[in-house]
Write a structure and sequence with these properties.
Order of helices and strands: EEHEEEEEHH
Radius of gyration: 23 Å
Distance between the termini: 77 Å
Helix content: 10-25%
Strand content: 15-25%
Oligomer: single chain
Number of helices: 3
Structural class: alpha+beta
Length: 109
Amino acid sequence: MNDNYVAPNGAAYALKIATPSPEVLQRRLKSGIYNYDIDQLQKRCSKCRDHWPADSEFFFAEKCSADGLSEWYKACYKDWRYPKGRKAAVDASAPLPSAPAVAHDSATQ
C-alpha cells in the first residue's frame, strides 16, 4: 500500500490508517462500524452507511476520535458542507459589485 496520499490540489500527505485499540476494534467489528475486506480494515460512514477503507484518503484525520479518523466519508462531508458545490461557495464569498453612482439633480431637492 502506498504511504502517501496526493490531494486533488497536488499536495502530498502521509497516509494515516485507523489504529483503534483492541477493545474499540472488537466493539466496532461487532456493531458493524468496521469490517474486513481482503485484508483491509474498512469503516462505515455514519452519513451514507457505506463502508470505505479506514484511512485518511477516505476519512479526515481527527485526533479526538478513538481510531483517529472522522465519522463521515470525505465526499459525504463535502456534499453536506457545500450542497451547491465548492465553486458556488467560493463565488458566494466574493465581494458584491459596487452600485453605480447616481447623479443628484440639485434642482429637484
